[in-house]
Amino acid sequence: MWQSLLFIIIISTVFPLRAQDLTAEARRIIDTLSSKTMSGRGYVNNGDRKAADYIVSYLKHISRIPDSNIVRQQVPFSINTFPGAMLLEADKQTLLPGQDFIVKAFSSSLKGKYRIKPVNLKQLWQSDSTKISLRCGKREVLCIRASDWPASIERRKTEWLLEHKLFGASALIEIQSKKLTMDASQEQLPLTWIELLADTQAPIPHSINVNIENVFLPEYRSQNILGIVKGTTVPDSFLVFTAHYDHLGTLGTNTYFPGANDNASGVSMLLNLSKTIEQQPLKYSTAFIFFTGEEAGLIGSHYFTQHPIIPLNKIRFLVNIDLAGTGDDGIKVVNGAVDTLHFNKLKQLNDREQLVKSVQPRGKAANSDHYFFTQAGVPSFFIYTLGGISAYHDIFDKAGTLPLTDYNDYYRLLLLYMKSF
C-alpha cells in the first residue's frame, strides 16, 4: 500500500493534475482504499486507522496542505466486529460468507450443531397457545423466509419479538432471496441472526453446523480527519466538503467489504479537490472533513457537530459526497427540494456548462453525514451519483467494477459551485 502511495506522490509531483487525469488518479486512490490491506476500512486489523493514515499522508504529501492545517479528531464509540471464525454448513454443505450468507451486525458468537425449526411469521401474532408451540429446544434454531415479512408496524413488532424473545432459540436463520446487505452496529444483542441467500422455492435446510465469532468493542477510538486550505479574502469563513472513509470491515478472517463506491469514491473526490484548491485557494477557506463511523450511525459527523473544530456558524455551505463512482443518470441532491435557492444555483450552473446528465432534487433525509449539520442550521447538501452498478453494502462493491462514468464532469461541477460563493 505504501509503495502505491509513494508512486502517487512521485507522479503527482512531476505531472500537474489535469482534467483528463482525474479518473486515473481517482482509481489509484480507490484501489488503495478498497484493497484487502485496509480490511474493509472497519475496526478489525486497524482497517480504519490504516485508511486514516493514508488520507493524512495524501493531504500532506500530495495536496501539500501544511501539517498545522491538518487535524485528527479522536472519536470514541462502541462497535461490534467479526474478526475470527465464520463457518456455516447447511445440511453439510459449506457456505461462503458474504456470498451465500451474512450475519446481522448486532449478532453474538455461536458455535455448534443445530436442528432448524421453520416458522411461519403469521403465527407470531396469533394466540398465545400458538406462540408456545414455537418454543425451541437448546439445539434448535428458528428459520423464517424474508418474503413472509408482514407489512408496516407489524413487521417492526415482529422484528422486535424475534430479536428479543426468539422463543428460546439460539439463533435465527432468515432465508433471503433478493440480496445480502451488510451493516454495522454499535450494539451486541444476545442472539445470532444469519441471512442465508436462497431461491424463494428452495427447501429450508434441516440442520446447520456453525462457528461464528464476534468481538464487541465497547470503547473503540477512531478518528475524523480535517484539512484546511486558507481562503484568500475571508479566511475565517468556510466552505466545507465532507465524505466518510469508513466501511463495513470484515466477516471473518477471509471476507471483507471493499466499499469502492461507498465511499472510497467520495474520499477520492475530496482528495482530488483538496489538491486543486490548495494550488488555487478560493475566496473563503475550504475545509475537507473525512468522517469515521458513518456506517454505524453517522457517528463521526454527529461527534464533530457536538465538538466542532471549526465554528458551525462560520460555515457558509457544506457539500457531503457519498457514492460518487457512477453518474450514468446524473446526481441526486438531498436537501435540494427544501433549499431551493442553493439548488437552483447548482442546477443552473450545470445547465450552463453542460456537465452531468441531470441534477435531481430530493427532500431532507437522515441518510449521510450532512444530516447533523443540517440539524444545526448549517446550509448543506448531500450529493450522490445515479445509475451504473447496483453493488451496495456487499462484497461486490469492488474497485474493478466501478465505472466512474461522469467523474470528471462531477468534479468540475463541484469545484465551480464552490467557486461561485
Task: Show the helix and strand layout.
Elements: H1 2-14, H2 22-33, H3 47-61, E1 70-81, E2 86-90, E3 93-94, E4 101-103, E5 110-118, H4 128-132, E6 140-145, H5 152-164, E7 171-176, E8 192-197, E9 207-212, E10 215-229, E11 234-244, H6 260-279, E12 284-291, H7 299-306, E13 315-321, E14 331-334, H8 340-353, E15 359-362, H9 371-375, E16 380-385, H10 407-419
Parallel strand pairs: 5-6, 6-7, 7-8, 11-12, 11-13, 13-16, 14-15
Antiparallel strand pairs: 1-10, 2-3, 2-9, 4-8, 5-9, 10-12, 14-16
Helix pairs in contact: 2-6
Give an overview in words.
The chain has 421 residues and is of the alpha/beta class. It folds into two domains: 2-78 and 219-419, Aminopeptidase (3-Layer(aba) Sandwich); 86-212, Glucose Oxidase, domain 1 (3-Layer(bba) Sandwich). 28% of the residues lie in helices and 26% in strands. It is built from ten helices and 16 strands. Strands 1-10-12-11-13-16-14-15 form an eight-stranded mixed beta sheet, sandwiched between helices. It has an eight-stranded mixed beta sheet with strand order 3-2-9-5-6-7-8-4, with no helix packed on it. A hairpin with a 2-residue loop joins strand 2 (86-90) and strand 3. The longest helix has 20 residues, at 260-279. The protein is elongated.
CATH class label of the largest domain: Alpha Beta
**Class derived from helix and strand content:** alpha/beta
Rg over CA atoms, rounded to whole Å, is 23 Å
Low-confidence stretches: 1-20
Q: Give me the strand/helix succession.
A: HHHEEEEEHEHEEEEEHEHEEHEHEH
Q: Report the mean per-residue pLDDT as an integer.
A: 92
Q: Name the CATH homologous superfamily of the largest domain.
A: Zn peptidases
Largest sheet: 8 strands, mixed
Tell me what portion of residues adopts beta-strand conformation. Answer: 25-35%
Stated plainly, the CATH topology of the largest domain is called Aminopeptidase
When the domains are counted, the total is 2
What is the approximate shape?
elongated
Spatial separation of the terminal alpha carbons: 37 Å
Supply the CATH architecture of the largest domain.
3-Layer(aba) Sandwich
What is the total tally of β strands? 16
